[in-house]
Design a protein that fits this description.
Layout: H1 2-37, H2 42-74, H3 83-113, H4 121-157
Helix pairs in contact: 1-2, 1-4, 2-3, 3-4
Length: 166
């Protein structure tokens, strides 16, 4: 059972690494550079495509992380000390990724395609609002995933005490 518990944590941590790394690479590196160096509307068009593709990656990673959490009780693994907190953090980060991927990003892309410009008229105000929401989703995902990583580390490094699953 210890090998399965470790394998599940490793799978989850690898998925989180891809997800978290993509968030940082796109949000802190690619987007600021593209928007600063490429003229509008080409910059917005390019980043809409990039973010839409990354949304698929993030949602796939979220599904992997949630699957690793779901396997634990099904396989009869006892709950570690922080298992519920880790699972809840994983679920909340996944919800943020899905909301961003199926609601926010498609609407941003549609507004860009329709010619909306941030803060210009009603479509531009909606676009600005959606950009703010997307940034908040990314920040929430970052924070939650950092906590989930820490909880996996604690779980993997602490002695495992057998307890009955509730």
């Amino acid at each position: 059972m210890l090998a399965l518990r470790r394998a599940l944590s490793i799978a989850a941590l690898l998925a989180i690494a891809v997800w978290l790394g993509g968030l940082v690479a796109l949000g802190a590196v690619a987007a600021p550079v593209i928007f600063a160096t490429v003229a509008f509307p080409a910059s917005a068009d390019a980043m809409s495509i990039v973010f839409r593709r990354f949304d698929s990656v993030a949602m796939t990673c979220a599904a992997i992380v949630l699957a690793t959490e779901a396997v634990r009780p099904v396989a009869g693994l006892a709950f570690e000390r922080f298992a519920h907190v880790r699972a809840a953090g994983s679920l909340l980060a996944a919800v943020a990724a899905v909301v961003e991927g199926i609601k926010i990003s498609p609407r941003i892309a549609a507004l860009h395609a329709a010619g909306a410009i941030r803060w210009v008229d009603e479509p531009g105000r909606e676009l600005a609002h959606l950009h703010d929401l997307a940034e908040w989703c990314g920040k929430i995902e970052l924070a939650l995933l950092a906590v989930v990583i820490a909880l996996h580390a604690v779980s993997l490094s602490s002695p495992f005490k057998r307890r009955r699953a509730l």
